[in-house]
Amino acid sequence: MASRPLFILYLSLILFVYLLIVTFYYLNDTLPTPLPVEIKPTNEEIFALQDNVRIPFRTKMECDGYNEFREIPFEQLWFWPSVRIFIGIWSVADKYEIRHLIRTLNLKQRRNLAGDIVDFKFILGIPSDNNPELKLKLKAENDTYGDLVMLDMVENMNNGKGYYYWKWIAEQLDTTRYDYVSKVDDDLFIHFQNLALNLRPLTRGHLYYGNKSPHSFFIRGTIEVLSVDLAHLIASFPFKKREWNGPEDVQLGAFLNKHAKSLNTIGENCLIFTDPRIRKVRRKMWRPWASPNSIAIHWLKDIRAWKGVIDLYFSDDN
């Protein structure tokens, strides 16, 4: 019973100190200003900044990439052993035009690779609406190009697609042909050669690579690169709704940190970034300009927004 008055006294003292601090700030008109909360812009707001605007471009980024920070200059990456990468581009059924554009650019890139191998397919879930015309279009598209994968699940972003994608990688893809497997969004331009070069010096096992949110445990879902062994690790566990329902990048990071006995998490926060044209409305991952060494540019949600990428990296193509 004697401890109760002491507890009340202690609590009163804390409250008194708090009131003193608040009173001090109030009298001096120096109450701290809350940090601004970034409001997610609409696609229309973003495209207004991208339409007919060139992507700022310089010969060198204003920051150092992961390998540069480790004192491996970009020019030396060519001397490391080549790598083999599979990229799964997450899409949805009705995005035909975006897929066709990405497919065209990626096939051009693949022909120009120097020693490395980069393959890709588009990853879809089963359309939620039973639309016969849509199904016929998807069949025709896949009959023509052979690059669509329909996961055995209803289309979704954050309710298990991540698990079933990595499970498909482990069970349906010949992973002996690859060192790394990746998931990317369909609003992302990936420079195949630069991605391969920057992966060359890295470990072939237990790798979890991409743009990493500061002070967090996960790689942002814009592009997630795993070594093949981690895809097999995921597939070795049964699907649990509580582990995979929620933002797919956060859930992947939580799963790997929980279950992987060893995990080499590498953040590439310089060369993977948001379109420099949209600084005013989208600051996450933003960089002021692109360069010849950039790996990926995010937030290209309209076909016309891709023109800036084509002008930079494909202007010499016939």
UniProtKB/TrEMBL annotation:
Topology of this chain in the membrane: Single-pass type II membrane protein
The organism of origin for this protein: Rhizophagus irregularis (strain DAOM 197198w)
Alphabetized PANTHER family for the sequence: BETA-1,3-GALACTOSYLTRANSFERASE PVG3, BETA-1,3-N-ACETYLGLUCOSAMINYLTRANSFERASE
Leader sequence segment: none
Name this polypeptide is given: Hexosyltransferase
UniProt superkingdom: Eukaryota
Keywords recorded for this protein, A-Z: Glycosyltransferase, Golgi apparatus, Membrane, Signal-anchor, Transferase, Transmembrane, Transmembrane helix
EC number: 2.4.1.-
